[in-house]
Structures are given as C-alpha cells and as structure tokens.
Amino acid sequence: MRAPSTRTRRIALWSTGPAAVLLAGLMVWQASNAAFSSETYNAGNNWNSGSVTLTNDGTGSAMFTLQNLVPMQTDSHCIVVTGTSSVVGTLRTYFTNNVPDGLENNLTMKVEQGTGGSYGSCTGFNPAATFDALPLATMFTSHSTFADGILQWDKATGTQSKTYKFTWTFDTTGMTQAQIDGLQGKSVRTDIEWELQNN
C-alpha cells in the first residue's frame, strides 16, 4: 500500500480541525439544551377600586323653604338617605354653604336618625339616634365639615338606608318684645350634607 503523500496529509490535517471545533460546539449545545429547568408563575392579577354612592329621596327640592315665620313656630320634615358601597365606610351629617342673616341664633335644629317615613312625610318614623336642638349658628361653627359631622353611621357594604327627621323652631324664649321685634325681616340659609367616606 502506498503511503499518503505530503499534500494529502496536509488536507486531512486542515479538515480535521474545523470538524473537531464543530463537533465540540454541538456537544456543548446539546449539553446546555439538556440542562434541568423549572418555572412558576401567578396569573391573572387585577386591581379594581371600590365605590361609594349616596342618594336621597328629596328629588332635588329643599326640605324647608319657609316665609313669614312668627316667633315659636316649629315644623318637621323627613328625608331618606340611601348609601351603596362596595367597601365599609363612615357617614356623617353636617351643615355647609351657610348664609347667616339675623335668624341663625334663634332658629334651632333638632336632628334624628332612624327608619320609616319618607320625603315630605314623617309618618311611621322611628328614631334610633338623636342630636339635640342647637341654634343654627352653633351648627355652622361646630358641625360644618365631615370631621365634626353628627349622627355617625358606620355603614356596611351593600345598600342600606336611614331616615333623618329635622325639626326646626323659631325660638324666642326669654327675649324681650324689643328683641323679638328686632328679628323681623331676618333670614338664615344652609345646605344639609351627608358624606360617606370609606374606612
């Protein structure tokens, strides 16, 4: 048998190098492709904010629009407040947008919270909590924000209602005739607000 020529040996040597490199690369790729692996995940994460809403059965009308008041006159009016919420919260009542014009010290307001009755009629009203009568002037300075609101209602989730009965009196107790006469043509104005805040 003839021995390979020098040229043949060189070709064989040069072709063996690239083949060896390719073979080594394939072995590394196969080794890395066969490595152990594992994974875990937690799917479907989602965030939705809660909601709170308040309505009343007053149909947008003021409970009291009275003219020509006379000393010691009094009257009551009821209104139903309904809260719907997906979170628990605290509801309070207060007096806002106040416009005192002479009657604020002599117009007292008693507020009761309970069940029964409706806007325009307190028939069937059953009180569960009472805030004793105070002059509107005191309400304006002491109970005019959520922080100092009255008759706190710790509301659960879902829809619930409470009835509020407001009793006002044009109180001139202990006043002289001259002082009473000085109240002629005077007025006072306020908005009654209910606010629900989540806990």
Taken together, the total number of domains comes to: 1
What percent of residues are in strands? 35-45%
Strand order of the largest sheet: 1-2-7-4-5
Biggest beta sheet attributes:
5 strands, antiparallel
Number of helices: 3
What is the first-to-last residue Cα distance? Answer: 100 Å
Give unreliable regions as ranges.
none
**Morphology:** elongated
Q: Based on DSSP secondary structure assignment, what is the total number of beta strands?
A: 8
The CATH architecture assignment turns out to be: Sandwich
Structural class given helices, strands, pairing?
alpha+beta
Q: What is the residue-averaged pLDDT? A: 86
Detailed description of the structure:
This protein has helices at residues 6-33, 136-142, 177-181, and strands spanning 52-56, 74-85, 89-101, 107-115, 126-135, 150-155, 158-170, 187-198. Helix content is 20%, strand content 40%. It contains 3 helices and 8 strands. The protein has one domain: Immunoglobulin-like. The radius of gyration is 41 Å and the shape is elongated. The strands form 2 sheets. Strands 1-2-7-4-5 form a 5-stranded antiparallel sheet. A 3-stranded antiparallel sheet has the order 6-3-8. By secondary structure, it is α+β, with helices and mostly antiparallel strands.
